[in-house]
């Protein structure tokens, strides 16, 4: 490769141009999505029980992601001598429309967007918004049920397995309970659950009865990556849902419900890298980034970095499997 290969066209620094996820092209025609990955914002935070602000998460994650768009067509890992994201076609389809104060309509719009991404054969990546947006994301996979059951990998400080409180069934404390009610969800691995406000004993027991493996941060550290992976079903479809408060507030302060004692970056990424190789990742959401609580934008940068590296793992694993089967 000549030294002038990267001198053609615009330099296109992160702070220049249009702000889309990883500076990918846009697609406003949801009936004509042609990409390997489709990114959609779900700026809904009416499900929060304390500090709102996650509605601004998608815009903030998009802006942070431009930092990682300035490169050489991929991301080189010298540790593995691997080029990630090379040739992966990502498109930003914008945001699902939000109808203020109307959870039902807002969630229906999110579900519609995820269905369109799935119909197009793209890997759906949805960024919230509070964690209640996971419920419509999971409902959209009803059309995917004929491709086999789905196991959910959850990174979170909180169990989110509340059934109903004062008539609320679709707040940010309910999504994993709602997911467990879907016939095509075979079980869950819930990682990072800890401390006060996570959930009560009965919810934990019901989650375990529904097929969940629940591990705290200290459990994950004690088991190590290999020990954790032994508890996760192999050769299945995975849906990955990441609440940014699964990470420690020292690196992710910009969230509505921070919980100390959380994960550091590589503790999560090393597990997710193995998940990508152990089965097929069919969907991703990342929620609860509330940028106004973090003036440094560290939380948004973390979210963007997690997503782009995770996508690199997923498509590298797919390519490896294709080579092995050919």
Write the layout of secondary structure elements.
Layout: E1 25-26, E2 37-42, H1 57-65, E3 75-77, E4 82-84, E5 90-95, H2 103-119, E6 123-128, H3 134-139, E7 150-155, H4 175-180, E8 185-191, H5 201-209, E9 212-215, H6 217-230, E10 237-243, H7 265-278, E11 280-287, H8 298-325
Helix pairs in contact: 1-8, 6-7, 7-8
Quick tags:
alpha/beta, 326 residues, 8 helices, globular, nine-stranded parallel beta sheet
Helix coverage percent:
25-40%
Per CATH, the architecture is 3-Layer(aba) Sandwich
Q: Give average pLDDT, whole number.
A: 94
Q: Look up the CATH topology.
A: Arginase, Chain A
Largest sheet: 9 strands, parallel
Report on the structure:
The chain has helices at residues 57-65, 103-119, 134-139, 175-180, 201-209, 217-230, 265-278, 298-325; strands at 25-26, 37-42, 75-77, 82-84, 90-95, 123-128, 150-155, 185-191, 212-215, 237-243, 280-287. It is an alpha/beta fold and 326 residues long. The protein has a single domain (23-325), classed as Ureohydrolase domain (Arginase, Chain A, 3-Layer(aba) Sandwich), CATH 3.40.800. Strand 3 (75-77) and strand 4 (82-84) form a beta hairpin. The chain is globular and about 60 Å long.
